[in-house]
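Q: Give me the 3D complex with glutathione.
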Amino acid sequence: MKLYYWPKTRAFRALWILEQLRVPYEFAYVSIRAGEQNAPAFCSVNPMSKLPALDDDGVCVAELGAVLLYLADNKYPQAGPDVPTDNPLRGRFLMDIFHGRLSQTGNGGTDDGRTGQQREFRRDDLGRVEKVIESALADGPWLLGERFTAADILVSSTLQIAYMVAKLIEPGGVLSDYVARATSREAHERAASINKQEAQKVPSAASQQQTGTVSVKP
Ligand SMILES: N[C@@H](CCC(=O)N[C@@H](CS)C(=O)NCC(=O)O)C(=O)O
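A: Here is the predicted complex, encoded as structure tokens.
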């Protein structure tokens, strides 16, 4: 399993699920600061030139929701898929994994280049999704109840950005407690530590400035 990765990007969430599943993987570095996402070598994996992307023995998958779903469906060796297709919770699971509104709210940017969205818009938008997520969490520690799923990775990591970076979520509430619960899981801690080490290797990623390159490694 190859994870096309750059520190401090959405690729972290793919790293988290790989650590969660304990699927063996290797990194293929794509410096988005240096524009390597546009190199033909990477475009053949993801023609949309975005991270994260996977190459699973020739099966290429990109788009975070699809990456999470692919792994959650295929890669639980013992426990079976995250939420099987005949489980009544499958619909809710898919909805949370592809929660486009939420994933845009968290970082304040959108995929269509409108990266300078006003804070107020994001606040309104977050207000809407907050209610949905809070009500899902009423029945258990995780979105689907007792079981932590890939949907929690998507939702909690997006909320974490809204909470920690954009400071859009108040501390001490249902959502911030949920983020704390999710991010204190062992797999998250492992992934965060790897992400930090990788960022330190690449000063441009640590400082979010554009310098240096690391080539896409086949
Ligand atoms: N819709 C994509 C968005 C991914 C995305 O925007 N990734 C950023 C890194 S966080 C990226 O690769 N940016 C490079 C670019 O836009 O050229 C997804 O959910 O996977």
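A quick observation: Confidence is low (pLDDT under 50) at residues 108-118, 206-218.
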